[in-house]
Amino acid sequence: MINTIELFAGVGGFRIGLERANLKAKKQQYKVVWSNQWEPSTKTQHASLIYEERWGKENHANGSIEEVDVSDIPDHDLLVGGFPCQDYSVATTLKNSKGLLGKKGVLWWSIHRILSEKINKPKYLILENVDRLLKSPSNQRGRDFAVILKSLDDLGYAVEWRVINAAEYGFPQRRRRVFFIGYHKSTALYKKIKSEALDTWVLNDGLMAKSFPVSEQVVSESYFNLQGDLKEVSDAFGLGTKLSPFLNSGVLLEGKIYTAKTTANYDGEITTIKDIILSENEIPSEYFIAEEDVDKWKYLKGAKKEVRTSSSGFEYNYAEGGMIFPDALTAPSRTIITGEGGKAPSRFKHVISTKKGLRRLLPIELERLNMFPDNHTELEGVSDTKRAFLMGNALVVGIVEQIASVLAAEMN
User: Fold this and answer.
1) Does residue 272 belong to any structural domain of this protein?
2) Quick check: 100 pLDDT over 70?
3) Which domain holds residue 353?
4) Annotated catalytic residue: which of 25, 49, 85, 236?
5) Mean predicted confidence (pLDDT) in 167-180
6) Residue 85 designated active-site
């Protein structure tokens, strides 16, 4: 049994992926023994309420992870979570033995605190973030990811990462996110990485390569070492450079890094918007776009090159490219964003064409684009707009399922 904790759980995307890996294997490989979800900006904790409705309140904490006592978190083999993208710089050097910490409110350091304080450290980590993490901030390209890698290196983990566009592996959404897996030095998989060439691990033998194969012909690649301690990495990494050294695939082992720009190697079936939408007679009338609003949608979706005036009276030239309108039914969807819900015309909301007219997508359809169970977010007091917001914050469950299935197989 792989005892697991789920941090920044949202409505449970990681947990669903792990449970589906269990179903695929026809045995309970993963067991979630503790979870945490807290949304600081909202009074009603909608995501946590949905999580509790689906899995119960036992061993679920709805409070700030920064305030959780690590001794209250059960020992676990696997830590998973999609943590917020923030400024990960090291802010202070403490005088006591705890060493270096980042700014309060930066939730990466809550993960770091758990890993630091746990005597029995988790053997594996599966974490997710936006792909810009590899190149932020703009004045120190790649520093944020370097800080994370260095802190995990110091804690005894090897790390491999991959930027995965879900649609490139047959899933129904063009959602691009970086996933990374940590292997503690006590594990057989860590020792296996150490016994191989790093490029072989990334391109062929690693968990990412087995979960989501890539072409062996890389676009570009490089090797380098993470120099200095954590404070030095935070202060100096990426200074004076225009590009991040971190490419879309890579591995870190004992300070040594191999990174490559890889391309997906997939020739299976593709799931499209057409495959997930409801039938015509299931669509409430309010989801259809009124004829008088169509021009507003066309304007927002269209290309623009115009003079605009700021609130201070300053005139400036504004330009942006056009978007496909309506969205193509025969392709995976664009990325769902948190502003997907509501009737108001928007550049980024999905609109499809049907026999009855143009319409927006329903929450159940957004859930399907993220491969969630139908009506997973349906709960009294949770509006359709909030359900759409929750899906904009979620991940594509099939990616977690695939990584978890490969990890469980490799551990045996």
Assistant:
1) no
2) no
3) 278-328+337-392
4) 85
5) 98
6) yes
